Amino acid sequence: YSKLSNDLFSILNDADDYNVIIKVGENENAKEFHAHSVILRARSPYFKGALSSCWIEKKNDMIFYSKPNIAPNVFDMILRYIYTGKLELTEQPSEDILELLIASDELLIEELFDYVQVYLI
Amino acid sequence: MSSRKQPKGKIRPPKKPNSADAQFNDNWDRLAQAIREIHKKNASILSFEELYRNAYNMVLHKNGDKLYNGVREVITQHLEEVAVSQVVPAFPLSGASSSQTNPNGAGGANFLKVLKTVWEDHTTCMLMIRDILMYMDRVYAKTANVPLVYDLGLDLFRDTIVRSQNYPIQNHLLEVLLQQIKLERENEIIDRTNVKASIDMLLELTDASTKDTVYATDFENKFLETSSEYYRVEGQMLVGEYDAPEYMKKVDKRLNEEEQRVRHYLSQTTEPKIRNIVEEELISKHLKTVIEMENSGLIPMLRNEKMDDLGRMYKLFGRVVKGHDEMKSAISDYIRELGKAINETVTSNTTAEGGNAASGDKQTGATVAVRWVQEVLDLKDKFDKVQNLALSNDKAFQTSFNEAFEYFINKNSKSPEFISLFIDDNLKKGLKGKTEEEVDSVLDKTITLFRFIGEKDVFERYYKQHLAKRLLLGRSVSDDAERGMIGKLKVECGYQFTTKLEGMFNDMRISSDTMTDFKEYLDKSVLEKPKLDLSVTVLTSTFWPMNLSASPRCNLPPELTKACGTFQNFYLGRHSGRRLTWQSNMGTADIRGSFKARKHELNVSTYQMVILLMFNDKQDGESLSYEQIKGESDIPEADLKRNLQSLACAKYKILVKEPKGKEINPGDQFNFNNDFTAPLQRIKIQTVASKVESEGERKETREKVEEARKHQTEAAIVRIMKDRKTMEHNLLIAEVVKQLQSRFMPNPALIKKRIEALIEREYLERATGDRRVYNYLA
User: Hey, is A18 helix, strand or coil?
Assistant: First the structure.
């Protein structure tokens, strides 16, 4: 599925039709990510709930979401994994990897959680 | 809000607040508050992210159970309040007054509507609560082995609302549901959506102990009980009020309605159960009553050929175990009854005829026979139609009908004779102007009756007699028709049954060739030509039904005796070793009679010719007595009487009898009727042919049949024993019955007698060790 992964990654990178803006981190470390609600909801039960119509806050058809307790670089990894199903962990600093483990647990991305766990062991 | 502070106290950890506890309390307060906002439909002010993270942190810090219990507490609280503030006020007025104030169950409908709203609100809220507590579900509920929060919500709804301990919600709900259904049964329009919502709700809730749905545990049985009662009462009312067709339509409608009801708002699992109830209460319990309804039940339907109603009954009654059996036996009884009536008209007719048996009436027994067969055929037609149009050609019914026909047809001991006479009637020349196709189809139907006859050998005997008369008297409509009929019999019974009949045809053909040869022979011969045209048919004695041993004797006039002698010499010259016996009772003659007015050509039987020729030697006015005629002609008494009757008491009175009367008695005097006149030059004197046998003849036929059966039985025994060499008594009996039953039903006593006769004649012996075993002696 490498082609599929690559194509989906390009959707994430050059998103011109995104409908979710996620503000990640707090204060000066905060960063905005652009994403597609369909993909997020399909890939994570957390986002399935979070982005369901009864919870979302919309402005001009754009969903605004904020996730203050996760660092942007960690969220970046999560997003990549959500879109592509792949993640290269060897290049990442180990403290980020630990944070990734915690975040993937919170966001109930079990696949990623298991993947990181195996990597750490 | 103050009232809601109370439950918080319950879950607040006791004393000694450390920082972790404080943190938890703080988080929990906010979460509990949020759930309350969700309940108030204020979710838009809440942040999913915060609430989720809040719950996540609690579970992460091992406070899952506190969170879980807290949530339970808050939801319970809420539902309690819903019960008090929404559900209870919507209770319909109960008791007798409800039917007055809410004749259409409006109060009940409103109650269901409220419950629908409450349920929808609850499930919507629970979905949102489930979202924010997703981490609790995934991490805590799984390990603590407690229901997921949504299921918890269902359980709480069940216990707090549907089965509330504090308020009679359950009673009201069940009552209203049953009442709504009752109203709908009574043709009121109800709001099915509300009923369906409540039913769906009950279907979604699970009973903790049975693991079945609350629908099944709380509702279904009550529904079935009230339905049973409802239809028990209705069944009694309907049978009292409606006739059978109307009743069945009502039942049809009810069955349909209940099916629709289940489909629209009950559970499919209820479908067979409610169907059983309606079938039991409206069909099973009233089967007999409906079948036996005086002017509209099964028999009147049959009588009036109400095919639609019969079809409906067949379909409807087929739903219950005994239904078709009851119908079958009622119809069969009816067939037997009708058959009995047909048989009775015949016996009453024949006995009436027996009273003046020698009347010479043209209405011979044959009409009775033909009428009997026609009536049986009509009956058969009628029930074939019923079978075809109303009973979907049900095999079981067909079998039962056949048994009924077989029963009454064989009750009439004359049926083999009657059926043969009926065929005779149809195959006789120049009758009724039926086309060949019509005759063929009648004969086809007759074959179906033939199938029902148990004593096919008796039929064969009569058929041979009737066929012989048709052939010899030249009355057969056509060879094709005769052969067609024999073909049909062959299909039914095999070639053995018809070889003799076919042999009769051969004799006819060969005889006609023989006659051609005889004429040539006479032309060429130097012999004196006979003074009359002689036509002889040579019959093979084993094929034809004539009795050789008691061959009819008769003193023929000298010219005829001489002609016969000439033929005999001719024939025996060609076929040496044969013996010819003259069957003078079967012949006919054309003679010329001179009367005062004119001459007539008379077509008469051989016997009549013999009688008439006696008067040639007499003076005008000189009479002959019965005794004289009898003595001189030597014609057997019964034949003599019959022929004298034809000559003196029928349409053409060639002879005058003294004293007058329809009976021939000893001492009667006969005179040649010189004054005889008739418009036609050629006159056929009807011989009383093919009529139903008299009692004496019947006895004789019977004896012949019995005799033939003895032979057939012995032949079968020998055939079997020759093949098996040794055989046990019962097995032998069974095998013999099997071989013979296509011709007649042999009774074991008869077979046993034949076995004994065969032992006596040393065809068989009893085995030395076992007297119940026979050995074949080659």
Answer: coil
Alpha-carbon gap, residue B612 to B557, rounded angstroms: 11
Report how far residue B255's alpha carbon sits from residue B668's, in angstroms, rounded to the nearest whole number: 80
Q: Which segments of A11-111 are extended strands (E)?
A: 20-24, 31-35, 58-59, 62-67
The answer to whether residue A45 neighbours chain B at the CB level (below 8 Å) is yes
Partners of residue B422 on adjacent β-strands: none
Chain A residue closest to B137 (CA)?
A: A108
Alpha carbon of B56: minimum distance to chain A alpha carbons (Å): 7
SS3 B525: coil
Phi, psi (5° rounding) for residue B608?
Answer: -65, -40
Which phi-psi region, left, alpha or beta, contains residue A33 (left: φ > 0; alpha: ψ -120 to 50)? beta
Q: Kindly report, residue by residue over B186-232, the tens digit of the pLDDT.
A: 888 888 888 999 999 999 999 888 889 999 988 999 999 999 999 99
β-partners of residue B593 are B600
Contact residues, A window 54-93, toward B, CB-based 8 Å cutoff: 54-55, 65-69
**Which of A41, A51, A54 would you mutate first to test chain B, the one with the most B CBs within 10 A?**
A54
ipTM metric: 0.93
Angstrom distances, CA of residue B650 to CA of B26, B362, B672: 131, 9, 15
A54, A65, A108: residue with CB nearest B49 = A65
Whether the model pTM is above 0.95: no
Instruction: Please check whether residue B580 is in contact with residue B572, taking contact to mean a CB–CB distance below 8 angstroms.
Output: yes
